């Protein structure tokens, strides 16, 4: 069972507590790398992804994801890793959470590198080869896809919409921003490739300790579910083609549910049954954390009220 290998549980109450050592370690890494480039700016060319120098500096395909080049993006990434880990690590376990971060970061950077090389050969503009690219926002986009998978019907309080639509809205907003921005290459490929690579991993390759299946082939997590109902008949053939090209396999669950059902209810051991259990655990874990925070807050304020 996944519950048998959870990440560290909260040790204190309140919104800004209960972060695991892994999450705090990753956040610290982001801060330290940012401090390094502040003290020694030329280090950007060795840490960031510079497509024209990736060979022989191949480590850029890992290091660039942990470099933020502005204080604003650093703050967003630190908060994202802390709160994303607070939700996902207890459900997946520390090892799986760390594996997700590393793989999504690597796939995002490799895809961005290939895109930059392609754009250079098309346009012959050297800016695609020698502009330093970096950022953790590909992994942050992957966190949103993970929330869509685990708790799709959870309402996001700030946006007043279900979690399953947050990744799509984030990509749409980033794309519109990229059309208006001059330096779209510095963030748009990260968000798009981070979203898609995280979906590929969660869809086909993530191993689950509670079943013999890999990934999540349920219809509720098909790639067409990232698009509005009106566009799905148009997008579905494109999604199937991309699945064959990039994933090397077809998805027998698009758009129908996969697995075996009896009377409309998934049977134990089927893909839909396992995916449904994971979503239930995700929603339950989030609810438990919210209740824990509320009880902790009330526990802190109650003695003060009694003293008054």
UniProtKB/TrEMBL annotation:
Region (Disordered): 253-275
Localization, UniProt: Membrane
Keywords recorded for this protein, A-Z: Membrane, Transmembrane, Transmembrane helix
Main location: membrane
Record InterPro entries: Rhomboid-like_sf, TMEM115/Pdh1/Rbl19
Pfam assignment, any one: DUF1751
GO biological process, one term: retrograde vesicle-mediated transport, Golgi to endoplasmic reticulum
Any GO CC annotation of this UniProt entry: membrane
Membrane topology: Multi-pass membrane protein
Keyword Transmembrane helix among UniProt keywords: yes
Residues passing through the membrane, by range: 26-49, 69-88, 100-122, 163-181
This protein's record includes keyword Membrane: yes
Domain of life of the source: Eukaryota
Family matches, as PANTHER family: PLACENTAL PROTEIN 6 (PTHR13377), TRANSMEMBRANE PROTEIN 115 (PTHR13377:SF3)
Name the UniProt record assigns to this protein: Uncharacterized protein
Organism expressing this protein natively: Ceratopteris richardii
């Amino acid at each position: 069972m996944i519950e048998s290998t959870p990440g560290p549980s909260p040790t204190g109450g309140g919104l800004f507590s209960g972060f695991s050592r892994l999450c705090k370690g990753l956040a610290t890494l982001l801060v330290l790398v940012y401090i390094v480039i502040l003290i020694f700016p030329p280090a950007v060319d060795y840490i960031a992804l510079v497509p024209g120098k990736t060979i022989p500096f191949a480590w850029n395909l890992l290091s660039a994801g942990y470099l933020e080049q502005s204080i604003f993006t650093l703050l967003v990434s630190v908060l994202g890793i802390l709160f994303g880990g607070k939700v996902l690590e207890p459900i997946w376990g520390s090892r799986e959470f760390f594996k997700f971060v590393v793989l999504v970061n690597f796939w995002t950077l490799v895809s961005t590198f290939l895109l930059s090389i392609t754009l250079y050969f098309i346009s012959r503009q050297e800016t695609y080869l020698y502009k330093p690219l970096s950022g953790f926002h590909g992994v942050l986009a992957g966190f949103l896809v993970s929330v869509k998978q685990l708790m799709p019907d959870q309402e996001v309080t700030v946006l007043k919409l279900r979690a399953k639509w947050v990744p799509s809205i984030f990509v749409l907003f980033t794309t519109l921003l990229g059309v208006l921005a001059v330096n779209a290459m510095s963030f748009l490929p990260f968000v798009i490739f981070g979203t898609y690579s995280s979906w590929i991993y969660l869809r086909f390759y993530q191993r689950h300790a509670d079943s013999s299946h890999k990934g999540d082939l349920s219809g509720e997590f098909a790639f067409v579910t990232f698009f509005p109902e009106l566009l799905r008949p148009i997008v579905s053939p494109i999604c199937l083609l991309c699945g064959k090209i990039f994933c090397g396999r077809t998805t027998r669950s698009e758009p129908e549910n996969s697995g075996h059902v009896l009377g409309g209810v998934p049977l134990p051991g089927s893909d839909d049954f396992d995916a449904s259990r994971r979503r239930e655990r995700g929603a339950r874990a989030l609810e438990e954390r919210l209740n824990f925070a509320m009880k902790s807050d009330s526990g802190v304020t109650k003695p003060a009220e009694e003293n008054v």
